[in-house]
C-alpha cells in the first residue's frame, strides 16, 4: 500500500507540473521506443559468481518525455515509461549441473532529468528514474533443457518493490539516442519466502544482481509543441 500511495503522489505531481508548463507554453513531448541490451555484471548466488549473458529486448519498451524549456541550451525532462528489463544468469550448481536462469520484469517508470544542447541538434542528457515492477517472469534451464517450473506473477514480491536508477546518454540529429542506465538496488527481494515441505524457504537469499543496460532509442512521433488553451482560442 505504501508503494501504491507513493506512486499516486508522484503521478499526481507529474501531471500537475505538466499542466503548469503547458499553461506557460514551455512544454513539448517526444515518444520513443528502445532497443535494450541488459545484463547484471556481478551476479552472486550465495558467493558463487555466474556467467552473465547479454539480453536483447526490442519489445515492449516505450517512453514519453516532456521537455520543459529553460533556455536555448538546457531543457528539463519529465516523463513516463514502460520497460521490459531483465538478465540471464548462467552458472553451475553444487551437483555440477549447468543452470541457466532468465529473469525479467515489466516496469512502469517516472524519469526526471536535464538535456543540454552542446552543438546544433546534438544533445547530452542525464537524470534519475524510479521504476515500479508490475509483472515478473522467471524461467529455468538445466543442462540446456527447459524446466517446467516457470514462474509468472503480477505485482510479485520476488523483486524489489521499486528500482532506483540513473541514466545518461547522447541524442543525435534525427532523433536517434544512445543511453546507459544503472539500477542502484538489488533486483531480488532476499526476504521473499515460500513454504516448501513444511519449512520456510528463501529462494533469493544471498542472491544479488544490479542490472545495467545500453539502449538505442528512436523517435516514434515527431516532437511537437503543446500550446495553451488560451492561445488556441485567440
The unreliable regions are 223-234
- Quick one: biggest sheet? 8 strands, antiparallel, barrel
Distance between the termini: 45 Å
Residues in helix, %: 10-25%
CATH class: Mainly Beta
SSE string? HEEEEEEEEEEEEEEEEEH
Number of domains: 1
- Strand tally: 17
CATH topology: the name is Porin
Q: What is the count of helical runs?
A: 2
The chain-level mean pLDDT equals 83
- The portion of residues forming beta strands comes to over 45%
The side-by-side strand order for the widest beta sheet comes to 1-6-7-8-9-12-13-17
Shape: elongated
CATH architecture: Beta Barrel
Describe this entry's structure for a reader.
- By secondary structure, the chain is mostly beta strands.
- It has a single domain (2-225), classed as Porin (Beta Barrel).
- It has helices at 2-23, 229-232; strands at residues 27-39, 44-45, 48-49, 51-53, 55-57, 62-69, 74-92, 98-119, 122-142, 145-146, 151-154, 163-171, 177-183, 194-196, 199-201, 207-208, 212-225.
- The strands form three sheets. The chain has an eight-stranded antiparallel β-barrel.
- A hairpin with a 2-residue loop joins strand 9 and strand 10.
- Residues 223-234 have low confidence and may be disordered.
Question: What's the SSE blueprint?
Answer:
Layout: H1 2-23, E1 27-39, E2 44-45, E3 48-49, E4 51-53, E5 55-57, E6 62-69, E7 74-92, E8 98-119, E9 122-142, E10 145-146, E11 151-154, E12 163-171, E13 177-183, E14 194-196, E15 199-201, E16 207-208, E17 212-225, H2 229-232
Antiparallel strand pairs: 1-5, 1-6, 1-17, 2-3, 2-16, 4-7, 6-7, 7-8, 8-9, 9-10, 9-11, 9-12, 12-13, 13-17, 14-15
Amino acid at each position: 500500500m505504501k508503494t501504491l500511495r507513493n506512486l499516486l503522489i508522484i503521478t499526481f505531481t507529474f501531471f500537475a507540473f505538466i499542466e503548469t508548463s503547458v499553461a506557460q507554453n514551455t512544454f513539448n513531448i517526444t515518444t520513443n521506443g528502445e532497443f535494450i541490451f541488459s545484463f547484471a555484471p556481478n551476479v552472486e548466488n550465495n558467493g558463487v559468481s555466474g556467467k552473465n549473458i547479454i539480453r536483447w529486448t526490442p519489445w515492449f519498451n516505450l517512453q514519453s518525455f516532456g521537455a520543459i524549456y529553460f533556455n536555448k541550451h538546457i531543457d528539463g525532462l519529465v516523463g513516463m515509461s514502460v520497460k521490459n528489463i531483465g538478465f540471464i544468469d548462467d552458472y553451475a550448481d553444487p551437483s555440477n549441473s549447468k543452470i541457466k536462469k532468465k529473469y525479467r520484469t515489466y516496469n512502469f517508470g517516472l524519469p526526471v532529468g536535464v538535456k543540454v544542447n552542446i552543438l546544433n541538434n546534438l544533445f547530452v542528457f542525464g537524470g534519475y528514474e524510479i521504476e515500479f515492477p508490475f509483472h515478473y517472469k522467471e524461467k529455468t534451464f538445466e543442462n540446456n533443457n527447459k524446466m517446467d517450473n516457470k514462474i509468472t506473477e503480477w505485482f510479485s514480491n520476488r523483486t524489489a518493490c521499486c528500482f532506483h536508477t540513473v541514466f545518461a546518454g547522447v541524442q543525435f540529429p534525427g532523433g536517434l539516442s544512445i543511453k546507459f542506465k544503472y539500477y542502484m538496488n538489488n533486483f531480488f527481494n532476499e526476504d521473499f519466502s515460500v513454504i516448501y515441505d513444511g519449512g520456510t524457504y528463501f529462494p533469493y537469499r544471498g542472491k544479488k544482481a544490479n542490472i545495467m543496460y545500453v539502449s538505442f532509442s528512436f523517435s516514434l512521433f515527431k516532437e511537437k509543441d503543446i500550446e495553451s488553451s488560451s492561445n488556441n482560442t485567440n
